[in-house]
Specification:
The protein is α+β, with helices and mostly antiparallel strands. The chain is built from seven helices and nine strands, in the order ααααββββαβααββββ. The strands form two sheets. It has a five-stranded antiparallel beta sheet. Strands 1-2-3-4 form a four-stranded antiparallel beta sheet, covered by helices on one side. Strand 6 and strand 7 form a beta hairpin. Helix 1 runs parallel beside helix 3 and helix 2 crosses helix 3. The radius of gyration is 21 Å and the shape is elongated. 22% of the residues are buried.
Length: 224
């Protein structure tokens, strides 16, 4: 039963997220501010996200870029699961699912039963991480796909350095970025479309593109 003076349940999500210090809370707070149906929840989430961004000296979009979860994938784009005597590796497939390979390079569906040489604590931690990574990868891809679509619609731009660090350099975002066409200095006479390709940036003629230090980067749109 509700106690006198108790908060209504609808107020709980954004308040709980605001108090949560974990990195995963920031993307969820931002998602609430954009997509929750109740206007009061949206407004509260927007205010809390704005306050957090202001404390850091960022815009809300910059806050969202800097708090994208990695789903456990490291800078090399791989999920490393150490069992003690061997390591299993997770990769992101073209369909954005998690593909697991054994220490022999064979694709497997799950981690194996532990061996005597394995570390039981590491095995338990690896299994927990694998479950969490699969769930988080799915959530990150869905949310960031929507963010990129919105960025294209509103014509958002990034500085070249921020785009390279927080999008191209992110183990999950980089996979989404590689599927899209981008424009250096959009809206100017020197605008130049390009796409990421195997660690390089190339134009329509497959010539290398090097972003200028003061350049901006935006998503290409068919109407332009």
């Amino acid at each position: 039963p509700a106690r006198a003076g108790a908060r209504r349940p609808r107020d709980a999500p954004e308040d709980a997220l605001a108090a949560n210090p974990q990195p995963a809370a920031s993307p969820e707070r931002l998602a609430l501010s954009r997509r929750f149906r109740q206007a009061t929840v949206q407004e509260t989430a927007q205010r809390l996200a704005g306050e957090l961004a202001e404390r850091r000296g960022w815009t809300a979009d910059q806050l969202a870029d800097r708090t994208v979860q990695t789903a456990g994938f490291e800078d090399d784009g791989l999920l490393h699961l150490d069992l003690g005597s061997r390591e299993y590796v997770g990769r992101i497939t073209p369909a954005f699912t998690l593909e697991l390979t054994s220490d022999a390079g064979k694709v497997v569906k799950a981690l194996p039963a532990p061996r005597a040489q394995d570390d039981p604590e590491l095995v338990a931690a690896a299994k927990k991480q694998l479950t969490a990574s699969r769930k988080e990868l799915k959530a990150v891809v869905a949310l960031q796909n929507q963010r990129l679509y919105e960025a294209m619609c509103v014509g958002r731009t990034w500085t070249a350095s921020e785009w390279q660090e927080y999008l191209l350099g992110h183990p999950v975002m980089s996979r989404l970025v590689e599927r899209l066409v981008w424009v250096e200095n959009p809206g100017t006479e020197g605008a130049r479309p390009f796409r990421p390709d195997g660690g390089a940036l190339v134009d329509a003629d497959d010539e290398d593109v090097e972003l200028g230090e003061g350049s901006t980067v935006g998503l290409a749109h068919a109407v332009l």
